[in-house]
TrEMBL record:
<dbReference type="InterPro" id="IPR050523">
    <property type="entry name" value="AKR_Detox_Biosynth"/>
</dbReference>
<dbReference type="InterPro" id="IPR023210">
    <property type="entry name" value="NADP_OxRdtase_dom"/>
</dbReference>
<dbReference type="InterPro" id="IPR036812">
    <property type="entry name" value="NAD(P)_OxRdtase_dom_sf"/>
</dbReference>
<dbReference type="Pfam" id="PF00248">
    <property type="entry name" value="Aldo_ket_red"/>
</dbReference>
<dbReference type="GO" id="GO:0005829">
    <property type="term" value="C:cytosol"/>
</dbReference>
<keyword id="KW-0560">Oxidoreductase</keyword>
<protein>
    <submittedName>
        <fullName>Aldo/keto reductase</fullName>
    </submittedName>
</protein>
<dbReference type="InterPro" id="IPR020471">
    <property type="entry name" value="AKR"/>
</dbReference>
<feature type="domain" description="NADP-dependent oxidoreductase">
    <location>
        <begin position="13"/>
        <end position="315"/>
    </location>
</feature>
<dbReference type="GO" id="GO:0016491">
    <property type="term" value="F:oxidoreductase activity"/>
</dbReference>
Length: 318
C-alpha cells in the first residue's frame, strides 16, 4: 500500500478505472472484474458522475450505480477506497465544467445515492471550471469534509497555474487542499505532465493517479502499423494521437523487454509508471477477469534501472 498525498488514505499502487462499468462491461462482468481486483489485493477504485454519459441512452452515473450495487451486495465498503469526480457532468450547460457550490452540493448527494454509501474517500474536481472562483469550489469541498461526506479532495485535468493557485488559496484560507492530481500521463504521452505538473506534485507531496496509463490500449500492443485499424471511435482516437513512428518505436523497445521479463506490454507500461517517484497509482481499466489479473501482474514486475532508462529514452519528448 502507498499513501495518497498527505490524505492518510492507504491505496494499492494500481487504481482500477471504473469508466467501463455499465458501458463496455455490463453489470455482471463489472462485478467479476471488481471481485478479481479485490482478490488480488486491490482496494482503490476510480469513477466519475459523468461515466458514461457519452453513450447513446445514458445520462451519466451508470458507473457509480454499478459500483454501488456491487458494494451493497458484497458488504465491503470498509475495505475499499472510492474515488469519484464532479464537474464534468453539467445538465445546465453540457460540455462545460461546473464546480459551483450549487452544482457540487447537488452532485455529491447524487453520487452518494448511486454509490450506496454515506461518504466518498476521494472527491475530485473533474475539469477546471474557470467561470467559478477557486475559493467557492474549495470552500464547498471544505464543508463536505466537515460534514463527513468526503474524506479528501483531488484535482483532475488542472493546469500548473490553476493547481498552484488552488494550493495557495487552501493554505491562505485554511481550506483542505487538493491531495491528489489526476493528469493524462503515459509512456507515449509524457510532456504535459512532466513539464511543470510533476515538479509541483513532488514539491507539495501531492499524490498522482494518472489516467490513460495504457494510452487507450495503444501500449497493450494491440494496435500495430501492419494491422488493420478497428472501425471504432476509440481506435480513431488512438490513430490521431499515437499513430506515428516515435510511438511505434516505443512499442518495438517494449517488445524486447517483454521477452526479457516474460511480461505483457501492458504490464511493462504500468510498471514503468509505478517506478516513477512522483506517481502514486496509475489508473487502468479492465473488461474481463483475465485483463484484471494481467493488470495486477504489473505490481509484481520490478524493472531494473537500465530498463527504466531505456524506455524513458525512447519515449523522451512524446
Amino acid at each position: 500500500m502507498v499513501t495518497l498525498g498527505k490524505s492518510g488514505l492507504e491505496v494499492t499502487p494500481l487504481c482500477l478505472g471504473g469508466n467501463v462499468f455499465g458501458w463496455t462491461a455490463d453489470e455482471a462482468t463489472s462485478f467479476q472484474v471488481l471481485d478479481a481486483y479485490l482478490e488480488e489485493g486491490g482496494n482503490f477504485i476510480d469513477t466519475a458522475d459523468v461515466y458514461s454519459a457519452w453513450v447513446l441512452g445514458h445520462d451519466g452515473g451508470e458507473s457509480e450505480t454499478v459500483l454501488g450495487r456491487w458494494i451493497h451486495k458484497r458488504k465491503n465498503r470498509n475495505h475499499i477506497v472510492i474515488a469519484t469526480k464532479v464537474g464534468s457532468l453539467n445538465p445546465e450547460a453540457p460540455g462545460k465544467p461546473n464546480l459551483s457550490r450549487r452544482h457540487i452540493l447537488r452532485a455529491v448527494e447524487d453520487s452518494l445515492r448511486r454509490l450506496q454509501t454515506d461518504y466518498i474517500d476521494l472527491y475530485q474536481a473533474h475539469r477546471d471550471d474557470e467561470t467559478t472562483e477557486l475559493e467557492e469550489t474549495l470552500a464547498t469541498f471544505a464543508d463536505l469534509i466537515k460534514q463527513g461526506k468526503v474524506r479528501a479532495i483531488g484535482a483532475s485535468n488542472y493546469s500548473p497555474q490553476r493547481l498552484t493557485e488552488a494550493l495557495s488559496l487552501s493554505k491562505q484560507h485554511g481550506y483542505p487542499r487538493y491531495e491528489s492530481l489526476q493528469p493524462f500521463y503515459n509512456l507515449v504521452g509524457r510532456k504535459g505532465y512532466e513539464a511543470e505538473l510533476e515538479g509541483i506534485c513532488l514539491k507539495e507531496e501531492i499524490g498522482v493517479i494518472p489516467y490513460s496509463a495504457l494510452a487507450s490500449g495503444f501500449l497493450s500492443g494491440k494496435y500495430r502499423p501492419d494491422k488493420e485499424l478497428p472501425k471504432t471511435q476509440r481506435a480513431q482516437g488512438v490513430q490521431s494521437r499515437y499513430w506515428n513512428e516515435r510511438s511505434f518505436a516505443v512499442l518495438s523497445e517494449m517488445d524486447k523487454f517483454a521477452i526479457y521479463y516474460h511480461a505483457t506490454l501492458a504490464q511493462l507500461a504500468l510498471a514503468w509508471l509505478i517506478a516513477r517517484s512522483s506517481i502514486t497509482a496509475p489508473i487502468a481499466s479492465a473488461t474481463s477477469i483475465e485483463q484484471t489479473h494481467e493488470l495486477m501482474g504489473a505490481l509484481k514486475l520490478q524493472l531494473d534501472q537500465d530498463t527504466i532508462e531505456a524506455l524513458a529514452k525512447v519515449s523522451e519528448g512524446l
